[in-house]
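not sure who needs this but someone in the group chat was asking about Alpha/beta hydrolase family protein from Chitinophaga niastensis so here u go. i didnt clean anything up, its just raw.
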Amino acid sequence: MQQQVLPLSLRMAGVFLSAMSRPFPGITARLFYRLYCTPPARKLRATHEQLRDTAITHQLQVTSYPFDYTPLPIVTYKWGNTGPKVLLLHGWGGSPFDFKQLITTLLESGYQVVTYDGPAHGASGGKRTNLVQWMHVLEQVIKKEGPLHAIVGHSFGGLNAALTLSRKNVKVPRLVMLGIALSAPVFFNDAFRLFRIHPVVMPQLLTLIHKRLKEGLEELDLYRYINKIKADKIWIAYDTTDTLAPATDIIHFLEQYPAIESLKITGDGHFRIARHQAVLEGIMQFLAKEGVVKTDVAADIK
């Protein structure tokens, strides 16, 4: 979590939850769950609207959960009609058009690009969402849009991609993760510390998550799936100044997964990493490579 980027409304909600947590742990758990399943509202910039208007837009009907077949409309965006296809996944509260520079670079290099508004984001359906739903939706998108040459995911989108490729019956030749979130349990624990929510709430929250999502929070942890990601090649870019996806966590993960290639930059933080020039160049070089490279490449860029 990164307190300086939290909006005032979320900080005020944290104060309220902290005060409620010890005397009313059940109510606090339900309010916390609702809060963290509700993505922030996002208004597109003019340049993002212009990029959207150049895409072929389609509404894809998927089911909401593996255990709930309620239809969920997902709006997809496509550019190009020849070449290898690359799927882009935005993060929590993000937009497909945050990949503006990468989309342009991919198209100039002869790739097709497909992306979509995540559930409860942009023009897609839903008001609240969660990682279990994102994985289920991604699995359906991959099967309907494939074959894919690569998936590129930023932050929550990267965790979604890695868990989906680990746990679902889908695979991809190349996976790129930028400023990746590694663990939903760690995220929730960080939020509890940030908002000073009493520990008595956590057991209530874990029970609620299992009841609503049919699985435990501990299953949404990438550390459980080391060497199980069904991608031939994996590449991670991270920033040493990123406080939402700390470099220390990613370095620790890379130490346990030495087959992953990586690029380390400094100074762009969490949200600008997807348009950093060295990252764009690194992605393009990685996508163009043949075969599996068993090495860990790191470059410091000031």
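also The radius of gyration is 19 Å. if thats useful
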